[in-house]
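Bench log. Compound arrived from synthesis this morning; before running ITC I wanted a structural hypothesis for how adenosine-5'-diphosphate sits in the protein. Inputs:
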Amino acid sequence: MTNDTWGQIREELIKRVGKNNYVTWIEPLKLSHLKNGVARFEVPTTFFGDWVQRNYADHIRMHLASTGATVDRLEFSVGAVESRAADPKPAAKPVRARPANDADLPGAPLDARFTFDSFVVGKPNELAHAAARRVAEGGPVSFNPLFLYGGVGLGKTHLMHAIAHELQQGRPELRVLYLSAEQFMYRFVQALRERQIMDFKELFRSVDVLMVDDVQFIAGKDSTQEEFFHTFNALVDQNKQIVISADRAPGEIKDLEDRIKSRLQCGLVVDLHPTDYELRLGILQQKVDFYRNQYRGLVLADGVLEFLAHRITTNVRVLEGALTRLFAFASLVGREITLDLAQDCLADILRSSDRKLTIEEIQRKVAEHYNIRLSDMIGPKRLRNIARPRQVAMYLAKQLTPRSLPEIGRRFGGRDHTTIMHGVRKIEELMAIDSQLADDLQLLRRLLQG
Ligand code: ADP
Ligand code: MG
């Protein structure tokens, strides 16, 4: 058999293994000999050979056999083969066998406190929690990827770490890799610099569960995106679980390639909603149980937790920070934790949570979102691509601030209150029929209320 025949056979493997695995693992194989039932291939690294042996040997044997050749086994020898995926100038690369243990997984450390036990479930996060639980069982992949999104401090990282902890406990044989998108980029750039791209690819393709936190970070970073896309596809093709988090929905991440957006939307996309009062109170109560042990003898007056849950609505991290400070302060001065003490000790946090949204901030965010100038918000242009965002800003100003229509009109370049009313109505109408607009509004509202 010639290498040409092999070339034809291997292309048939695309259907079997998927395009990405094909490009990464099959295409670089060079058939060097086929005799006495042994097919020998040249591969770029030992790991590469092991990987193909483990994952694709049966398919390859079957396809070779379909041409009438007798093939009992495959052998791999490390040769001068240049992998398509590899560094363009692999200068006689040292061969390294890579033990498949977790020590070589370049993941980020996990926070021991971020477990399912310490995660308080409420209406705003119940779906995300249920999906994370499902993934943490490590059973057959039922949705891929799991895409978790929501504003800062709503528990995305916590849930991802919880999944990793749970998998380590229940399915220790699985290779679980958690890292931030920033770390992914850093590793990638480092691999490029050190001409270790093949190793990088091998590593990321050899995990069973990949979790990438804050994926919005790679938006606009073209080659990292590209690499992420290939890694992603290769793992999905192999039916490996992927979990992704971001601060917004896939479709809303600017400067992210469309093909990546659509890939990210293929699995289960769940949204962590801003916390509600009950959830905040639940989280505080759980923390207090913890502090009661740490600061024995401290007295917590009634109503303090309710007060905090009511007043600090921004994010859970701030809420936790407030409670931590309160307990530390109270124990330092040896006083009971009362409402007065809370108000004193947390004055700055309470003040910034009180912060009122201004019309200017709304105009700025909306202009930014639709890529128009801030000056066009108040200017006279009537072009649709400017007038519509302006109406969105009017609508949000009405919804999110206590300002009257004439006041809003004044801030939109001295427009009449009827113009504002018309704008608000228009958006209300459109929202019902235009799901893109409805999504835009939901995002903007979240960004503004942070
Ligand atoms: P994100 O990654 O979404 O910005 P994190 O997961 O880092 O947010 O959460 C911020 C902090 O709030 C962490 O200390 C986390 O433990 C805590 N937290 C968030 N949501 C919950 C929850 N539902 N129950 C308990 N703690 C929570
Ligand atoms: Mg996070």
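What the model suggests: The longest strand covers residues 30-35. Residues 359-449 form a domain with the Chromosomal Replication Initiator Protein Dnaa; Chain: A; fold (CATH 1.10.1750.10).
ITC booked for Thursday regardless.
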